[in-house]
Model the fold of this input.
Amino acid sequence: MATDARPRHVMRGGGSPPADGPVHEVVEARTASLGDGMEVRRLLPRRARRRVGAWCFLDHFGPVPSARLDVAPHPHIGLQTVTWLLEGEVTHLDTLGSRQTIRPGQLNWMTAGEGIAHVEVSQGGPLHGVQLWVALPEAHRHVAPAFEHHAYLPRVVQDDVGVTVLAGTFAGHTSPARTYSPLLGLHLDVPARAATRLTLDPTHEHALLVVSGAVSAVGATLRPGALHYLGRGRDHLDLSGVEDGRAMLLGGAPMAEDVLLWWNFVARTGDEVAEARRRWAAGGFGPVPGYDGDPLEAPPL
Ligand code: MN
Done:
């Protein structure tokens, strides 16, 4: 998933630098199409904000009552993809031979490193979730590809607010997902009228995305459709439920490197992108076992 049917995003540099202190910037989503009529709200990268820590891509899709998703084989390099569902199920296949159906509460965490290709399909039925990419730092961006499925994740309940740890560590609980830079990814279940204080690492920058309902934070009522960038320097975040809400809290150490996003690649130079594109066209990522259809073609350079 998260391959754009109209892949026009070439994103390098630009965007605001990581804020030194606490801020509240509203980053409005733009609508993107995955094909098959599936529209998504794209929250990263946006012109105003390219990344939060190493989180460099964020799509919020659904809820839709019925989605027949068929994202044909497509390649990734230099990143990790993260699939997290709130509703429905999606089956992942990749060039390593992985075949894994994911359901709400479970985590698919794929490290592309030097290169992998995958497929994501759903058989109809409701669908609601997010897909994220993590940019790999220079020292690790050519690691061997890997696929992790985590059926169970650490979950803490604090003042009736449920906190599931997708990435990094919260309240002494660490996600099993393999990360290559200081990163935080939390799913929050915030019932109406529940209120809690989350302890944060002030050296990280953070952002909050409400995916359903309404949550009160930083003096505002937050709803789906925008990413709320919170900057650095916060050692806590107070949250309360306005309506039963669900949210994602993303954090990480600001990434000093400039990265180039083109189609499904995270690279550093245009030559690297051209080389990955050639390799894909030549079948150099290998076949995705168990998938019959044609692969996606990369857009022209
Ligand atoms: Mn993908």
